[in-house]
Amino acid sequence: MKIGILTGGGDCPGMNAFIRSVTRSALNLRPGIEVWGILDGWRGLMEQSYRPINPVDTAGISSVGGTILGTVRVPELRTDMNLRQQILRNFIAEGFDALFVCGGNGSLHASCDLDQRLRAEGHAAPVLFTAASIDNDVANVYGTALGFYSAIRRSLEMMDWIRDTASAHRRVYIIGSMGRSSAYLPFYAGAASGAEYVIRPNEKVNYESLADMIEARERDTRIIVSEAYPKSLEEIRAILDHALERRNSRHEIRTVDMGYFQRGGQAAINDILRANWLGFQMVKSMLNDEGSAFFGAFNIGNAPNRLPLAEALDPSANHDDIPRDIIEMALALR
Ligand code: F6P
To answer: At a CB cut-off of 8 Å and minimum separation 6, what does 15 contact?
Structure first.
């Protein structure tokens, strides 16, 4: 029996823990199984780039950010049917009996497509998927994506650092956060770090009351801005500068972007433990011949949520905006 592991989309901490978990669970539960790493995400399947992995390859990697297998974005996969067919052909030619994927929405689409093509050709090999994305925007109703808590941890560190200088200079910092069109990363980073305000992607911001809030504060103000909010950090700065000028305010404004730093560094414990748990459960599911599925978990210990891949893609499986009661909690803690 031969299985492949693939990490796709934007890298994130937790991917390595997942690779380790699948590798070791498979080799311990089914001695003699062959475990192969697919290199550079879906491109590895397109270009037949794989290598065998053993337990030693995965030693000491659980908490390490990035992915030892590499990941490359392949946007053409969304539209290019020839590429999708090539992936199917290579997967079958290589003799894989199952594919374990962790990644974001693009990887979920690609997994679903490969699964459908395998079924159409009468192949039994399952595709088992779990979400790994700092954006936490993949079927998040059914589990938290690997990497999400690590990115909040990294954001918290950066928010603490910026507070030092903001407070020393009595400045306002407008701080960009990744997260695509999802509010999860910026909002949770704000809630964890006690940011004074978080601008969510679709929010109708009342800049006058934001300027009043800044003006009422003695020292620092940190405002996090979601990546998909339609104004740039500099545009927001110009609006607030103008509003503060009209108030004869002495507050100065600076901008900074947390950006790619949010994706790096050590994995959070919560991500490592969920990666361990999901990898182990997914291997057991494969050995029990339970077929293809999306797997989601909020924590270790409970049976993971298991959905057909196509259902995990349904918009109802994911919310991009923050539930109202969590927003209320953040407001109550200001
Ligand atoms: O999906 C993760 C993410 O980091 C997003 O938050 C961000 O919009 C995007 O990836 C950046 O992608 P890339 O690494 O391709 O520039």
So the answer is: 7, 66, 67, 69, 71, 102, 132, 146, 147, 275
